[in-house]
Amino acid sequence: EQSPNATRDAQKTRMDNLHSVYMYCINDVDCRRTLLLEYFGERYLASQCKKHVETRCDNCCSVAQAKLVDFTELSKQILALVEQLTQNMRTTTINYLIDVLKGSKQRAIIAAGHDQLEQYNIAQDVIRINVERLLSKLIMDGYLHQDISINDTYGTASAYIRLGKNTTFTDPIILSVCAKKENPNVQSVKATSSTRNRLVDGCLEKLKEELKCISAEYGIKYSTILSEKALKQMATTLPRSKEEMLRKTVEMTTIKYDLYKLDRLLSITCLFGSKLDEEKRDETMNCSSLKRKHEASTPTTSSYFHDGTNYDSNAKKKR
Which SUPFAM superfamilies did the record assign (predicted)? Predict the structure, then answer.
C-alpha cells in the first residue's frame, strides 16, 4: 500500500521494485543467480551456476534453451486492444485482456462482442506466461498502466489495465523466451507421465462405473453423491486409505463415505495405485539397466593418453 506522504519518485521506485520481483518469479528461462546478483549490481555468469550440478538453480537444472523474440508488433496490437476495451470509461482486468488475446470463448467475451475484435486470438501461439511477462514489461516501460482497486467490504484487490503515458515505441520490445525446455531424463519422465495418464484415465472410468452402480441402488443420480470433478481428484491422487480419501477429495465427507459405502471406490483407487507403483518399479529397473549399458559402452580412458605424447600430470596442475 502506498503511503500518502510518499513522493512520486518514491512511489515509482516501489512499483518498479514490485514489478521486478514479479518478473523474477515468472521468469523460467534465465539463471536465478544471474538475475538476483544483477539486481544488486553484481555480474554473475549462468555458466558458473551450471558448472556445479548439486547447487544449480531450477532454471539451469531444466536445461532450457533461451531465444530472444521481438514482440514489438504484438505490443502495438495490445495497446490498440486496451484502447478499445477501455473506451467510454470502461475498465478491464489483465486476466480479461489476456483471455481476449488468447481467444477465450468466455461467455462475457462473446456477449460483449470482443471475439469480433481484430486483436482477438492474436496471441494464440504465445504461451500464457509469456503474455503475462510481456504485459508486465509494457507496464514497467510505461506503455500500459495498472490500477489496483481495493474492495474494503470484501478485502479483495482487483488490477485494472489502461494505456500508459508512453504511446510511441522508441525501442523494440524484446523478451527472452524458452525455445526448448526438457529435463535431462526427459525420455524417462515422458514415459512415466504417459503411464500415469493411462492409469488415471482407466481409474476414472472404473470409478464412474462403480459410482453409477451405487447411485442406482439408492435410486439417485451419481452426480448427487459426487461430481465428476471429485472423481477426477480421486483418479489423480489415488488415495490408499479412508483418511487419505477424505483429505484429498474436496466433496468427500465421513457421513457421505459411510452412508453410501464409498469404500467400494477406495478399493478401485488402491488397485490402480498398486498398478502405478508396479509400473514405476519396472521403469526404474529399465532406466538402471540402460544406464549400466551406457556406462559399460563408454570408454573410461581418453584417446588423449594414447596419442604418443608424453603427458606430465604435474605440469597440468600448474596455473
Answer: HRDC-like, Winged helix' DNA-binding domain
